Amino acid sequence: MDDRDRLAFYPFVVVRIACRVCSRNGAYRLARLAAKFGPEIRLRDLLDRFSYDCLWRAEAHGKRGVSACGVYLPDLDHPRPPHLPPGLVRLRVVVSND
User: Closest Cα partner for 71 from 16, 10, 17, 15?
Assistant: First the structure.
C-alpha cells in the first residue's frame, strides 16, 4: 500500500465524497477531517467511516461478504482541481463537422 494514500497527502482543500450506486454525496474541509480523524488516516478507511451505514454495503456484507457500495473520491478521478476558478481553465478550440 502506498504511504501517499493518506489524508495528509490529499491534494485539495475540499474533500468530496460520492457514491456510484446511490445519490449520497458530501463535501468536507480537509482541515476539519484531519482534526477529527487524524492526518494519517488512510483514504480507504476514511471512506469506510463515511459509508458505514450504507444499505448497499450492509446488504452485500450479509450475503456475499463483498461490499457493493460505490463510495469514492470523485476529485481524484478528474485532472483539474474542483476549486479552480473558471477563468483559470485553459480555453479549448471546438471544431464543427458541419
Answer: 17
Instruction: Return the axis-axis angle of helices 43-50 and 30-37, rounded to nearest 10°.
Output: 90
Whether the Cβ atoms of residue 8 and residue 39 lie closer than 8 Å to each other: yes
Q: 37-46: per-residue pLDDT in tens?
A: 999 999 999 9
CA distances from 4 to 31, 42, 77 (A): 17, 9, 16
How do the domains of the chain map onto residue ranges? Answer: 7-78
pTM of the model as a whole: 0.68
- Secondary structure of 67-80 as H, E, C letters: CCCCEECHHHHCCC
Confidence bin at 97 (pLDDT 50/70/90): confident
